[in-house]
Amino acid sequence: MRHHRSCFDHTAAPLSTRVSTTLQVATLALALAVLIFLAVLSILSTGYFNPVDDPKLGRVFREGMTLHHGLPSMWFILGVIILSAVVIVIARLWTSIIPKTRLGLFTGIYTLSMAVLWITALNITGKVYDYSDSTSLINAANALVEGKVAEFVPQPDSLLSTYSYFSWYPFQTGAMLWFALVFKLFGTGNLFAFQIINAIMLGGIGYMLQRIGAALGLSEQGQRMETLLIMTSMPFVTSAAFIYPNTAGLFFVMLSLMAALRAVRQRSSLACMAWIVLCFVIGAVAVMIKGTVILFVIAYALVLGICAIRDRRYWMVPVTFALLYAANKASVIPLLIVEHAVGQHFGPGLPQSSWIAIGLTQNSTYTTMPGWWYNEAIQVYRRTGGDTVLMQQAANATIAAALHGFAANPLSAVSFVVNKLASEWAEPTYQTLYYSALAERRSNGPIASLLFFGRSNTIALSFANIHQTVVYTFAGVGMATGLHRRWMQQPNDDTTRSDTMLFLAMILLGGFGCFLLWEAKSVYTFPFALMLMPLAADGLAATGDLLFRRCLGFRIHA
What single DSSP character describes residue 520? Predict the structure, then answer.
């Protein structure tokens, strides 16, 4: 019998190995705990956006949610079992019939095709997008492209001028420049072109997800399972219609991850350094476009630091965190460009603690969900005249009051946290249908009507709910098998596989930890849920292998 050495058996192991292994095991264990929580949450809770009374050709859902808590129905449990079994069986048949397939290319082309189909099915007029942030960015980008710098002049009597918007959110200048680039290339206000670019980038994201699965060590069958999970993900395809820089930010930050994965494979220190620099350069671009992806870049830095300790490349640790600091500071570049172009100074904007204050409170007259956006931060900005110190004091006071209230009433605190997390992580569409419906449409075609209205909408949401639970549950299984391999330090567990799992675990922890405190939106958690696809495929592959070995007496081979 062969015995594997536990990660805590430190005999003959150098200090660098002991430290890096302990950090890796701790990270995987925390991520597993989060995944178990998310799986249970998705089984016991579901959030649905409330429909508007008369949707017609515009907004279909309110940004108000009904949360359902309780034991799942037998139909739901049966659906989870059937979807899991179908993915396992189809992947096995696919492997047997077509043993060699360019899965990355196939996944990318399929995603692109379905995203374009969804965009064209919406049949948008291209004139109106009923989302205030998008509208502000569209108007500002049009003005910048057309040279109408007067649009950026302060207008004291206007409640929502372009100047006011960037005074509150100066970090949005990077997103505005992304809109401006699209409009410069394809015509001002071309919202359809923006969606098509989203679709192209989603194709690239699908390709990269499949390559991450390969780096995770998925077999041919496991990679097909991942492809099937991506193919059946309704939020992934429908997210192309969201006229906002989320897709672009995710695309670039995933390119950054691909560079990070290459960096940890390099034997040459020079090559490793080159890939790390490229990782943070691309990461900086991603942060300029969509600021919240800084969570991904921080996760990359932490993992690269752990790998540096393991490989005794200690010089990588200060270099990596210096590059992280530079990437974060580079996010101010778009602001400087826009201020120079329009001859204005927008100021520092709302303090970041404002979003934590929102995330720890609920305005019941403004939203039905705890921690979701309401305009108190804007009201504070107006009352204080944009004074950073006063705004910071107001946010800190709100945070302190919220924490004091939680401490005084623990049951209320638990209810708040559970409902907030359920509204973020157990809403099966991740707001993608909500945002898809915000564009004015010429007509409601058959595909759009299928997902927006009636019984077919109920069926689509039920399927998305089942799919979400399958991903969370089997991502937990995949993380558990990876943790077991690291715990027992199995000799055939290559570093590429374990490093990839560490990246995915750290990304999940960053997203879960941030949006536990930050302003809530289910669309914010979508990129982190999407990164669970490779882990879910790993868990499904392990489960399928176990079932076929134990129940049918043979092993599924790649």
Answer: B
